[in-house]
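Try this one yourself first.
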Protein backbone atom coordinates (compact mmCIF):
# COMPACT_ATOMS: atom_id res chain seq x y z
CA UNK A 1 0.00 0.00 0.00
CA UNK A 2 0.97 3.57 -0.40
CA UNK A 3 1.62 5.31 2.83
CA UNK A 4 0.96 8.94 3.73
CA UNK A 5 4.18 10.28 2.22
CA UNK A 6 3.63 8.40 -1.06
CA UNK A 7 -0.10 9.14 -1.16
CA UNK A 8 0.69 12.84 -1.45
CA UNK A 9 2.18 12.20 -4.88
CA UNK A 10 -1.18 10.92 -6.10
CA UNK A 11 -3.31 13.50 -4.30
CA UNK A 12 -1.51 16.50 -5.74
CA UNK A 13 0.09 15.26 -8.93
CA UNK A 14 -2.29 17.00 -11.33
CA UNK A 15 -2.39 20.38 -9.65
CA UNK A 16 1.30 20.44 -8.76
CA UNK A 17 2.51 19.92 -12.29
CA UNK A 18 0.04 22.35 -13.82
CA UNK A 19 1.36 25.20 -11.70
CA UNK A 20 4.92 24.62 -12.91
CA UNK A 21 4.13 27.07 -15.69
CA UNK A 22 3.75 29.95 -13.25
CA UNK A 23 7.49 30.67 -13.51
CA UNK A 24 8.03 30.16 -17.22
CA UNK A 25 9.80 32.87 -19.16
CA UNK A 26 7.00 33.56 -21.67
CA UNK A 27 4.12 34.87 -19.60
CA UNK A 28 2.91 33.95 -16.11
CA UNK A 29 -0.56 32.49 -15.93
CA UNK A 30 -2.97 31.13 -13.35
CA UNK A 31 -3.88 27.57 -14.27
CA UNK A 32 -7.42 26.31 -14.04
CA UNK A 33 -7.07 23.72 -11.31
CA UNK A 34 -10.54 23.78 -9.74
CA UNK A 35 -11.70 20.88 -11.90
CA UNK A 36 -8.86 18.77 -10.51
CA UNK A 37 -9.99 19.12 -6.89
CA UNK A 38 -12.23 16.60 -5.15
CA UNK A 39 -11.20 13.73 -7.43
CA UNK A 40 -11.35 10.23 -6.01
CA UNK A 41 -7.89 8.84 -5.18
CA UNK A 42 -7.47 5.09 -4.75
CA UNK A 43 -4.41 3.53 -3.16
CA UNK A 44 -4.66 -0.23 -3.40
CA UNK A 45 -2.39 -3.16 -4.11
CA UNK A 46 -3.58 -6.70 -3.52
CA UNK A 47 -0.60 -8.92 -2.71
CA UNK A 48 -0.13 -12.64 -2.15
CA UNK A 49 0.43 -12.08 1.58
CA UNK A 50 -2.08 -13.64 3.95
CA UNK A 51 -3.68 -11.62 6.74
CA UNK A 52 -4.89 -8.05 6.76
CA UNK A 53 -4.59 -5.89 3.63
CA UNK A 54 -5.57 -2.25 3.26
CA UNK A 55 -7.05 -0.04 0.56
CA UNK A 56 -7.14 3.72 1.08
CA UNK A 57 -9.72 6.02 -0.50
CA UNK A 58 -9.42 9.79 -0.41
CA UNK A 59 -10.15 12.95 -2.37
CA UNK A 60 -7.80 15.50 -3.88
CA UNK A 61 -7.78 18.88 -2.17
CA UNK A 62 -7.49 22.39 -3.55
CA UNK A 63 -3.95 23.44 -4.45
CA UNK A 64 -4.12 26.44 -2.10
CA UNK A 65 -5.34 24.25 0.77
CA UNK A 66 -3.40 21.00 0.27
CA UNK A 67 -4.34 18.39 2.83
CA UNK A 68 -5.31 14.75 3.07
CA UNK A 69 -9.08 14.30 2.65
CA UNK A 70 -10.16 10.77 3.58
CA UNK A 71 -13.23 9.33 1.90
CA UNK A 72 -15.09 7.45 4.63
CA UNK A 73 -18.39 5.62 4.33
CA UNK A 74 -17.53 3.76 1.11
CA UNK A 75 -18.42 0.18 0.22
CA UNK A 76 -15.17 -1.46 -0.87
CA UNK A 77 -14.93 -4.96 -2.32
CA UNK A 78 -12.46 -7.02 -4.31
CA UNK A 79 -13.86 -9.55 -6.79
CA UNK A 80 -12.03 -12.38 -8.52
CA UNK A 81 -12.70 -14.05 -11.86
CA UNK A 82 -14.23 -17.06 -10.08
CA UNK A 83 -17.10 -15.02 -8.62
CA UNK A 84 -15.67 -14.68 -5.11
CA UNK A 85 -16.20 -11.37 -3.32
CA UNK A 86 -13.98 -10.07 -0.53
CA UNK A 87 -15.52 -7.27 1.53
CA UNK A 88 -13.41 -4.57 3.19
CA UNK A 89 -14.38 -2.94 6.48
CA UNK A 90 -13.99 0.79 7.04
CA UNK A 91 -11.45 1.62 9.75
CA UNK A 92 -11.61 5.40 9.56
CA UNK A 93 -9.32 7.98 7.96
CA UNK A 94 -10.14 6.59 4.52
CA UNK A 95 -8.72 3.14 5.30
CA UNK A 96 -10.53 -0.11 4.49
CA UNK A 97 -9.25 -3.53 5.58
CA UNK A 98 -9.96 -7.16 4.68
CA UNK A 99 -8.56 -10.45 5.94
CA UNK A 100 -7.27 -12.96 3.40
CA UNK A 101 -6.81 -16.63 4.17
CA UNK A 102 -5.18 -19.65 2.59
CA UNK A 103 -6.78 -20.27 -0.81
CA UNK A 104 -8.15 -16.75 -1.27
CA UNK A 105 -5.15 -15.48 -3.22
CA UNK A 106 -3.97 -17.67 -6.06
CA UNK A 107 -1.43 -17.03 -8.80
CA UNK A 108 -3.02 -16.79 -12.23
CA UNK A 109 -6.36 -15.67 -10.84
CA UNK A 110 -7.55 -12.16 -11.78
CA UNK A 111 -8.87 -9.62 -9.26
CA UNK A 112 -10.69 -6.30 -9.59
CA UNK A 113 -11.62 -3.51 -7.19
CA UNK A 114 -15.10 -2.00 -6.79
CA UNK A 115 -15.77 1.11 -4.72
CA UNK A 116 -19.17 2.63 -4.06
CA UNK A 117 -18.34 6.12 -2.81
CA UNK A 118 -20.34 7.68 0.00
CA UNK A 119 -22.33 9.65 -2.58
CA UNK A 120 -23.39 6.42 -4.30
CA UNK A 121 -21.13 6.80 -7.35
CA UNK A 122 -19.56 3.48 -8.42
CA UNK A 123 -15.88 3.10 -9.41
CA UNK A 124 -14.22 -0.06 -10.71
CA UNK A 125 -10.78 -1.13 -11.79
CA UNK A 126 -10.00 -3.57 -14.57
CA UNK A 127 -8.98 -7.13 -13.72
CA UNK A 128 -5.37 -7.64 -12.67
CA UNK A 129 -3.75 -11.08 -12.67
CA UNK A 130 -1.84 -12.07 -9.56
CA UNK A 131 1.64 -13.36 -10.37
CA UNK A 132 4.46 -14.45 -8.11
CA UNK A 133 7.39 -12.16 -7.43
CA UNK A 134 10.85 -13.69 -7.79
CA UNK A 135 13.11 -13.77 -4.76
CA UNK A 136 15.44 -10.79 -4.44
CA UNK A 137 18.99 -11.88 -5.17
CA UNK A 138 20.59 -9.30 -2.88
CA UNK A 139 20.40 -5.81 -1.43
CA UNK A 140 23.72 -3.99 -1.08
CA UNK A 141 24.92 -0.70 0.38
CA UNK A 142 27.86 1.41 -0.78
CA UNK A 143 29.20 4.36 1.22
CA UNK A 144 29.64 7.08 -1.39
CA UNK A 145 29.08 10.82 -1.92
CA UNK A 146 25.96 12.15 -3.60
CA UNK A 147 25.89 15.54 -5.31
CA UNK A 148 22.57 17.33 -5.69
CA UNK A 149 21.41 20.71 -6.97
CA UNK A 150 20.65 21.74 -3.38
CA UNK A 151 24.06 20.54 -2.16
CA UNK A 152 26.72 20.84 -4.91
CA UNK A 153 29.40 19.99 -2.37
CA UNK A 154 27.80 16.58 -2.00
CA UNK A 155 26.40 14.49 0.83
CA UNK A 156 28.09 11.49 2.37
CA UNK A 157 26.05 8.40 3.03
CA UNK A 158 24.95 4.94 1.99
CA UNK A 159 23.49 4.31 -1.46
CA UNK A 160 21.37 1.15 -1.49
CA UNK A 161 21.05 -1.13 -4.52
CA UNK A 162 18.89 -4.13 -5.38
CA UNK A 163 19.74 -7.13 -7.56
CA UNK A 164 17.04 -9.46 -8.79
CA UNK A 165 16.31 -11.97 -11.53
CA UNK A 166 13.59 -14.26 -12.80
CA UNK A 167 15.02 -17.22 -14.71
CA UNK A 168 11.54 -18.05 -16.03
CA UNK A 169 11.35 -14.60 -17.65
CA UNK A 170 7.79 -14.10 -16.45
CA UNK A 171 8.18 -10.95 -14.35
CA UNK A 172 9.77 -8.23 -16.51
CA UNK A 173 8.10 -5.34 -14.61
CA UNK A 174 9.25 -4.47 -11.10
CA UNK A 175 8.52 -2.04 -8.34
CA UNK A 176 10.21 -1.70 -4.96
CA UNK A 177 9.09 -0.17 -1.71
CA UNK A 178 11.24 0.16 1.38
CA UNK A 179 10.80 0.33 5.12
CA UNK A 180 13.65 1.72 7.21
CA UNK A 181 14.40 1.04 10.86
CA UNK A 182 17.17 2.64 12.86
CA UNK A 183 18.41 2.55 16.41
CA UNK A 184 18.86 5.76 18.36
CA UNK A 185 19.75 6.70 21.93
CA UNK A 186 18.79 9.29 24.52
CA UNK A 187 22.10 10.79 25.75
CA UNK A 188 21.12 11.67 29.34
CA UNK A 189 20.12 9.37 32.22
CA UNK A 190 17.34 10.83 34.33
CA UNK A 191 18.04 11.07 38.07
CA UNK A 192 15.45 13.60 39.24
CA UNK A 193 12.06 14.92 38.22
CA UNK A 194 10.60 18.32 39.06
CA UNK A 195 6.83 18.88 39.02
CA UNK A 196 6.77 21.63 41.61
CA UNK A 197 8.57 19.28 43.97
CA UNK A 198 11.92 17.62 43.44
CA UNK A 199 11.80 13.80 43.29
CA UNK A 200 14.39 11.09 42.85
CA UNK A 201 13.21 9.52 39.62
CA UNK A 202 13.83 6.76 37.11
CA UNK A 203 11.67 5.44 34.30
CA UNK A 204 9.79 2.16 34.86
CA UNK A 205 11.52 0.72 31.79
CA UNK A 206 14.59 1.40 29.66
CA UNK A 207 14.18 4.70 27.78
CA UNK A 208 17.83 5.01 26.71
CA UNK A 209 17.58 2.98 23.47
CA UNK A 210 14.78 3.04 20.91
CA UNK A 211 14.06 1.95 17.36
CA UNK A 212 12.02 3.86 14.82
CA UNK A 213 10.44 2.50 11.63
CA UNK A 214 9.20 4.57 8.70
CA UNK A 215 8.20 3.95 5.10
CA UNK A 216 10.77 5.32 2.67
CA UNK A 217 9.17 7.92 0.38
CA UNK A 218 9.61 7.74 -3.36
CA UNK A 219 8.74 5.44 -6.24
CA UNK A 220 11.24 2.93 -7.61
CA UNK A 221 10.55 0.91 -10.77
CA UNK A 222 12.49 -0.94 -13.45
CA UNK A 223 11.80 -3.24 -16.38
CA UNK A 224 13.67 -5.86 -18.38
CA UNK A 225 11.25 -5.82 -21.33
CA UNK A 226 14.01 -4.62 -23.67
CA UNK A 227 16.58 -7.09 -22.33
CA UNK A 228 17.10 -10.65 -23.40
CA UNK A 229 17.24 -11.90 -19.82
CA UNK A 230 14.96 -11.02 -16.93
CA UNK A 231 17.89 -9.85 -14.79
CA UNK A 232 18.42 -6.51 -13.04
CA UNK A 233 21.68 -5.55 -11.36
CA UNK A 234 22.58 -2.61 -9.11
CA UNK A 235 19.26 -0.80 -9.39
CA UNK A 236 19.46 2.31 -7.23
CA UNK A 237 17.09 2.53 -4.30
CA UNK A 238 17.15 5.15 -1.54
CA UNK A 239 20.13 7.13 -0.30
CA UNK A 240 20.66 7.76 3.43
CA UNK A 241 23.03 10.61 4.22
CA UNK A 242 24.97 11.41 7.37
CA UNK A 243 23.14 14.70 7.95
CA UNK A 244 20.69 12.92 10.29
CA UNK A 245 21.33 10.45 13.11
CA UNK A 246 19.77 7.51 11.23
CA UNK A 247 23.25 6.05 10.70
CA UNK A 248 24.63 6.90 14.14
CA UNK A 249 24.15 3.47 15.75
CA UNK A 250 22.66 0.88 13.39
CA UNK A 251 20.37 1.05 10.37
CA UNK A 252 18.26 -1.55 8.58
CA UNK A 253 16.40 -1.42 5.27
CA UNK A 254 13.62 -3.84 4.36
CA UNK A 255 13.12 -4.01 0.59
CA UNK A 256 9.82 -5.27 -0.82
CA UNK A 257 9.74 -6.32 -4.46
CA UNK A 258 6.48 -6.33 -6.44
CA UNK A 259 5.84 -8.15 -9.71
CA UNK A 260 3.76 -5.74 -11.81
CA UNK A 261 1.62 -6.02 -14.89
CA UNK A 262 2.71 -3.95 -17.90
CA UNK A 263 -0.14 -1.50 -17.21
CA UNK A 264 0.77 -1.09 -13.56
CA UNK A 265 4.40 -0.51 -14.51
CA UNK A 266 3.46 2.26 -16.96
CA UNK A 267 1.45 3.98 -14.25
CA UNK A 268 4.11 3.83 -11.53
CA UNK A 269 7.00 4.55 -13.87
CA UNK A 270 5.19 7.58 -15.28
CA UNK A 271 4.50 8.88 -11.80
CA UNK A 272 8.12 8.27 -10.83
CA UNK A 273 9.35 10.31 -13.79
CA UNK A 274 7.06 13.25 -13.04
CA UNK A 275 8.14 13.33 -9.41
CA UNK A 276 11.83 13.31 -10.40
CA UNK A 277 11.52 16.14 -12.92
CA UNK A 278 12.96 19.42 -11.70
CA UNK A 279 13.15 21.36 -14.96
CA UNK A 280 10.86 24.07 -16.28
CA UNK A 281 7.56 23.71 -18.04
CA UNK A 282 9.11 23.43 -21.49
CA UNK A 283 11.88 21.05 -20.48
CA UNK A 284 9.42 18.19 -20.10
CA UNK A 285 5.70 18.71 -20.51
CA UNK A 286 3.66 17.23 -17.65
CA UNK A 287 0.69 15.06 -18.43
CA UNK A 288 -2.22 13.31 -16.76
CA UNK A 289 -1.12 9.87 -15.58
CA UNK A 290 -3.98 7.55 -16.39
CA UNK A 291 -4.72 4.81 -13.88
CA UNK A 292 -7.16 1.93 -14.11
CA UNK A 293 -9.91 3.26 -11.82
CA UNK A 294 -13.00 4.15 -13.85
CA UNK A 295 -16.33 5.68 -12.89
CA UNK A 296 -18.99 3.19 -14.01
CA UNK A 297 -21.92 5.62 -13.89
CA UNK A 298 -20.05 8.50 -15.55
CA UNK A 299 -17.03 7.58 -17.71
CA UNK A 300 -16.07 11.27 -17.92
CA UNK A 301 -15.51 11.51 -14.17
CA UNK A 302 -11.78 11.26 -13.44
CA UNK A 303 -10.33 9.08 -10.67
CA UNK A 304 -6.68 8.79 -9.70
CA UNK A 305 -4.73 5.72 -8.71
CA UNK A 306 -4.11 2.17 -9.82
CA UNK A 307 -5.37 -1.09 -8.37
CA UNK A 308 -2.96 -3.93 -8.98
CA UNK A 309 -2.48 -7.54 -7.91
CA UNK A 310 1.10 -8.46 -7.20
CA UNK A 311 3.24 -11.06 -5.58
CA UNK A 312 5.80 -9.63 -3.16
CA UNK A 313 9.20 -10.82 -1.93
CA UNK A 314 11.37 -9.36 0.85
CA UNK A 315 15.03 -8.85 1.65
CA UNK A 316 16.54 -7.03 4.63
CA UNK A 317 19.99 -5.48 5.02
CA UNK A 318 21.77 -3.99 8.05
CA UNK A 319 24.54 -1.41 7.96
CA UNK A 320 26.85 -0.32 10.75
CA UNK A 321 27.86 3.30 11.37
CA UNK A 322 29.79 4.82 8.44
CA UNK A 323 33.51 5.69 8.62
CA UNK A 324 32.73 9.37 9.29
CA UNK A 325 31.13 11.20 12.18
CA UNK A 326 27.32 11.29 12.31
CA UNK A 327 25.63 14.08 14.27
CA UNK A 328 23.12 13.49 17.03
CA UNK A 329 20.25 15.84 17.91
CA UNK A 330 21.61 18.59 20.14
CA UNK A 331 20.91 18.17 23.85
CA UNK A 332 21.94 21.10 26.03
CA UNK A 333 22.09 20.99 29.82
CA UNK A 334 20.60 23.78 31.92
CA UNK A 335 22.60 23.73 35.14
CA UNK A 336 20.52 24.44 38.22
CA UNK A 337 22.16 26.98 40.54
CA UNK A 338 20.98 29.55 43.09
CA UNK A 339 21.03 32.10 40.27
CA UNK A 340 19.15 29.71 37.97
CA UNK A 341 16.69 27.97 40.30
CA UNK A 342 14.47 25.10 39.17
CA UNK A 343 11.45 27.06 40.44
CA UNK A 344 11.68 29.34 37.42
CA UNK A 345 10.46 26.56 35.15
CA UNK A 346 6.75 27.15 34.33
CA UNK A 347 4.12 24.50 35.04
CA UNK A 348 3.68 24.08 31.29
CA UNK A 349 7.18 22.53 31.21
CA UNK A 350 6.35 19.84 33.83
CA UNK A 351 7.62 17.24 34.26
CA UNK A 352 11.16 18.57 34.12
CA UNK A 353 13.80 15.83 34.01
CA UNK A 354 17.27 16.36 35.43
CA UNK A 355 20.57 14.48 35.37
CA UNK A 356 23.68 14.56 37.54
CA UNK A 357 26.88 16.39 36.65
CA UNK A 358 29.64 14.72 38.73
CA UNK A 359 31.88 16.91 40.87
CA UNK A 360 34.91 16.03 43.01
CA UNK A 361 34.51 14.19 46.32
CA UNK A 362 31.26 12.45 45.30
CA UNK A 363 29.32 15.66 44.90
CA UNK A 364 27.22 16.57 41.87
CA UNK A 365 25.18 19.35 40.32
CA UNK A 366 21.74 19.01 38.76
CA UNK A 367 21.05 19.96 35.15
CA UNK A 368 17.77 19.94 33.22
CA UNK A 369 17.21 19.35 29.52
CA UNK A 370 14.47 18.57 27.03
CA UNK A 371 12.46 15.42 27.71
CA UNK A 372 13.60 13.83 24.43
CA UNK A 373 17.17 13.93 25.77
CA UNK A 374 16.18 11.52 28.57
CA UNK A 375 13.29 9.59 27.08
CA UNK A 376 13.84 8.12 23.62
CA UNK A 377 10.09 7.49 23.28
CA UNK A 378 9.61 11.25 22.95
CA UNK A 379 10.98 11.00 19.39
CA UNK A 380 8.25 8.65 18.27
CA UNK A 381 10.06 5.31 18.34
CA UNK A 382 9.62 2.22 20.50
CA UNK A 383 11.88 0.89 23.24
CA UNK A 384 10.89 -2.69 22.40
CA UNK A 385 13.62 -4.16 20.21
CA UNK A 386 12.17 -5.47 16.91
CA UNK A 387 12.22 -9.25 16.52
CA UNK A 388 14.34 -8.96 13.37
CA UNK A 389 17.00 -6.75 14.97
CA UNK A 390 20.45 -8.31 15.10
CA UNK A 391 23.93 -6.98 15.91
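Now uncover the answer:
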Amino acid sequence: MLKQSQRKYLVGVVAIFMVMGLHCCVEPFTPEIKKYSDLLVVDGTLTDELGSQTITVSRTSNYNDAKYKPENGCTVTVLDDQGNIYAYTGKGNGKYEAEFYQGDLQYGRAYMLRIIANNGVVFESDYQTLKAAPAIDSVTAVFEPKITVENPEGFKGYQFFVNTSDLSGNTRYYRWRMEETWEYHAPFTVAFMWDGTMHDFSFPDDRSTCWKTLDVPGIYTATTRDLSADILKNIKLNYVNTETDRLKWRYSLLVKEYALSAEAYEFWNGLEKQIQQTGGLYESQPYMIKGNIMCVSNPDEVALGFFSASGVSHERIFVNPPPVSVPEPVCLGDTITPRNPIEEYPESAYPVYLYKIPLPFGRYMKAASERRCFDCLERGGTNIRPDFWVY
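Discussion: The chain has two helices and 25 strands. Residues 4-131+261-311 form a domain with the Immunoglobulin-like fold (CATH 2.60.40.10).
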